[in-house]
Amino acid sequence: MMHSLDFGSVEKALAGCRWGHTLFTYDSIGSTMDRAGELAHKGAREGALVIAAEQTEGRGRLNRKWISPPGSLYFSVLLYPPIEKLPYLTMLAGLAVAEAIEECVAVQAGLKWPNDVLIGGRKAAGMLVESSFSRGKQYAVIGVGINVNVDISTSPEITGVATSLSEQAGMPVDSLNLLRAAIDRIESRYSNFDKTALLDSWKARLITLGQPVKATMGEATIEGTATDVTDEGALIIRRTDGSICTVVAGDVTLS
Ligand code: BTN
Q1: Is the pLDDT confidence value at 116 over 70?
Q2: CA of 48 to the centre of ligand 1 (A)
């Protein structure tokens, strides 16, 4: 079920969708993030979508590489969010993608703070949000990478920590169906923005809560138990001495 991500097939899969009216598909590109940023500078409409079958310079959070061989989904969507939605975009995308995966594949998808989608304890998808100004207007790009029909063992850098949907499902996964589900769910949670419902559903999927964790923020490392998240999505960690630390951005490993 390795559907091609050519323009015609993607356009058909997205028929009736509120986003993707401006659509660019690539067999190979550096990063869909850069292309979506260029579209913002050209004044493209909200919901413009860039999809690539492969990325040569795919990037993740914290300046990491996002290994992007053919077989998976890589896309970026351009938005002009009002300021109150901006801090919630990664949360919103992570939740929507986890829900879309469960809709399309018989697996359970959890979230590791802040926004990694984990299946069977391994990372299956990641979100990256970049925002900037163009023409006096704030724009944001949500980038989504989902490991769909790839053999992770061929990428030694991520073997052991990553997984793919086909590996978890034991069969190939329909990428176009999953793309449609992900776009619809991100669009719906964005357009019908409900902060309380979003936080509740996101927290319910957050496997990090209650776990012993090690958080790294630049040079600093904090060890303790992840007890809760704030209304803005920051992670609250209780150290063994009882002191509390709030991690706004950074990385967390479950220890
Ligand atoms: C992460 O977990 O660190 C975020 C990964 C985000 C990867 C996606 S793939 C599509 C888009 N283009 C990129 O270069 N990165 C994002």
Answers
A1: yes
A2: 17
Whether residue 217 is predicted with pLDDT greater than 90 in this model: the reply is no
Structure token pair of residue 117 = 């989608």
Give the separation between CA 203 and CA 110, rounded to whole angstroms.
10
Strands, DSSP E only, in the chain?
A: 23-26, 49-52, 73-79, 110-112, 116-119, 122-134, 137-146, 212-217, 220-229, 235-238, 244-247, 251-254
Q: Tell me: the pLDDT tens digits for 29-60?
A: 999 999 999 999 999 999 999 999 999 999 99
Question: Which of the listed residues 29, 34, 66 should we mutate to test ligand 1's pocket, taking the one with most ligand atoms within 8 A of CB?
Answer: 66
78: its two tokens: 């351009």
Best residue among 63, 74, 147 to mutate for probing ligand 1's pocket (most ligand atoms within 8 Å of CB) is: 74
Q: What is the pTM of this model?
A: 0.95
Report the nearest-CA residue for atom 3 of ligand 1.
Answer: 60
To which H or E segment does residue 103 belong? helix 89-104
